[in-house]
Specification:
Helix 3 packs parallel to helix 4 and helix 11 crosses helix 12. With 301 residues, the protein is of the alpha/beta class. Strands 1-2-3-4-5-6-7-8 form an 8-stranded parallel beta barrel, surrounded by 7 helices. Helix 2 links the parallel strand 2 and strand 3. The protein is globular and about 50 Å long. The protein contains 12 helices and 8 strands. It has one domain: TIM Barrel, CATH 3.20.20. The protein is 46% helix and 12% strand.
């Protein structure tokens, strides 16, 4: 398995003025994110507006980004949904393109049992040789993938990690305690990155790394070197900006922020809308107080 790295960015999907996917700008953004500290990218996740992307658009994105970054970083394809068969098919096609792993969100809306969740993820894993990463985000799916179920899933050879966005550190502790040392627990919330690392987690699948990737990477590396106090200082410094990027539903704030700093990524697709004036002011004020790491921006921090 290709090493995925500790800092993965859940990349936005750029759109042009007509609302079509801007594949060239996606290539540009992917390269800039790797230049600013990311070890790899998650393409067509929730931050990438996956519910509004077609099957064909997703595959085209995977292909374009893979072509752009080559072997410089890992490419994790968001291929999961609430439809097991469709997830298997998209994962199969993504594997043919040459992605390095797949991210599989907990099925939303249809609310399966824990056994149903286990069978869903197992069926997808059995349909591919790719490393698989279940994604637990109860705030969006209205369903928690329990520690017990994740521990069972970790015993399947190609289920190698979990993206944990439950914000439940007790559950994260149970997962880390109950899985093997090579099973990777990624924080799914930027604000939980350092606490999860302290519990023995592996890294983060980040939104804020669009803007402060080098600084997040420094926090992780500093912690791993044993400089816990300095890592904590990084965490406290970065936390207000991280929180501002979730002042309303992601990815509305991060798309606004990227456009504001001068890296155009276009508008959002309905049903998501552009940020209103009040949260926009909060985001602008916060950005103006930070150094922005992303290359290619036109706004000077």
């Amino acid at each position: 398995m290709k090493k995925l790295g500790r800092l993965l960015t859940a990349m936005v999907t750029p759109f042009d003025n007509n609302g079509k996917v801007d594949y060239q700008q996606a290539r540009n953004l992917a390269q800039s994110l790797l230049d600013s500290g990311s070890d790899g990218l998650v393409i067509s996740g929730t931050t990438g507006e996956s519910p509004t992307l077609t099957f064909e658009e997703k595959l085209h994105l995977f292909s374009e980004v893979k072509s752009a970054i080559g072997d410089r970083g890992a490419l994790v394809a968001g291929t999961g949904s609430y439809n097991t068969k469709a997830s298997q098919e998209l994962t199969h096609e993504a594997e043919k393109i040459g992605v390095d792993a797949c991210l599989l969100v907990v099925p939303y809306y249809n609310r399966p049992t824990q056994q149903g969740l286990f069978e869903h993820f197992r069926a997808i894993a059995q349909a591919t040789s790719l490393p698989c990463i279940p994604y637990n985000v109860p705030s969006r799916t209205a369903l928690n993938l329990t520690a017990e179920t994740i521990i069972k899933l970790s015993q399947i050879d190609n289920i190698v990690a979990v993206k944990e966005a439950s914000a439940n550190l007790h559950q994260v502790t149970e997962i880390i305690e109950g899985t093997s040392k090579d099973f990777m627990v990624y924080s799914g919330n930027d604000s939980d990155t350092l606490p999860i690392l302290a519990l023995g987690g592996y890294g983060v699948i980040s939104v804020a790394s669009h803007l402060i990737g080098l600084q997040i990477k420094s926090m992780i590396e500093t912690f791993l070197k044993g400089d816990v106090q300095i890592a904590a200082e990084f965490h406290r410094h970065l936390l207000p900006l991280m929180n501002s990027l979730f002042i309303i539903t992601n990815p509305m704030p991060i798309k606004y922020a990227l456009n504001y700093v001068g890296f155009p990524v276009g508008k959002l697709r309905l049903p998501l809308l552009e940020v209103d004036s009040k949260p926009a002011e909060v985001i602008r004020t916060m950005i103006d107080n930070y150094k922005i790491d992303l290359p290619g921006i036109t706004k000077v921090s």
